[in-house]
């Protein structure tokens, strides 16, 4: 843990010591968890069976965006906490690039969640139009549009921020990546509110409203399905009681039909995907709500307040909110595993294929060794390895046979 000169006074407060410990120990856990989870999620989402569904294209892109957020944002903060220096202060181009890409990746991550939530809303609430409005090609176009849009929105950082030299402290010049002198009003006063709307306020409202509408539609559809099932069972029971003495086999057939209806009325593939995506979007709402509150409190904070303890307490609350925000970018893999049956099946299938491939390679290596040993023991005058002499063939008796003279 590295301490700056002014932090000696602040370390007397337990809240500030807790803040320093949080920033020292929590980020590496989130980075490791997020790296593993996002890489694994991307691999699974790019499998052939998953690419047939447009929603998984969004989730694959989300894994990439989340990884960028963790490495450009959280890793930078943690390294600064450990070393006492921020690497984006080292060069002007690094300053511009990290700020621009950091904002782009975080905004893109959120709007990919919005895109997949809108898609799920269409599927659930307008199922007859879904096939015409939703496909993998359109998903790719939407992803490309969002990448271009978010990069364009944050492109101004390439000329509105730069390395600024401050007054010497202890005889050393201090260089900070911050707003350029002619753009301080935009970067420090205007843009925080613009970014808050893009990243927090608008996405929060849109996702919350769409999720509520999806849940209402799912509940109503389930109630309708149960009413239909109850009506069907009542009809079958009436028919069975009417023909009980003469149509036992028919009654048995009706019972089979009822069982089939119950199985069909269970949650299908689309409903399972809906549950998984609802979990992801609700997790976003929960993990970003504290940051939204923090932004509002910061806007109305009395900056003339010189109560150091209150300032430290607010700083601790803001740090917790920020870490929760980064948690949102590192935990999607866990949510997929917990709620996505198809995702779990693909993980098992992938691991099984790797295991089978390893077993097959190991078996082939063992067979080659056995063949080599057999050749050495049976034919002392010929010392050849089978895989080194493809022009030779061994028959079922262990004899070496020359292949027929052919070019094929």
Q: What's the count of strands?
A: 4
Could you say how many structural domains there are in total? Answer: 1
Q: What pattern of helices and strands is seen along the backbone?
A: HHHHHHHHEEHHHHHHEE
Number of helical segments? 14
Question: How much of the sequence is in beta strands?
Answer: 5-15%
| Major β-sheet annotation | 2 strands, antiparallel
- Going across the biggest sheet, name each strand in turn: 1-2
CATH topology: Rhopdopsin 7-helix transmembrane proteins
List keywords for this structure.
mainly alpha; Rhopdopsin 7-helix transmembrane proteins; two-stranded antiparallel ribbon; about 75% helix; disordered C terminus; GPCR-Ligand_Int; transmembrane helix; membrane
What does this molecule look like?
This protein has 14 helices and four strands. A two-stranded antiparallel sheet has the order 1-2. The chain is mostly helical and 408 residues long. Strand 1 and strand 2 (172-179) form a beta hairpin. This is G-protein coupled receptors family 1 profile domain-containing protein. The chain crosses the membrane at residues 22-44, 56-79, 108-130, 142-159, 198-219, 273-301.
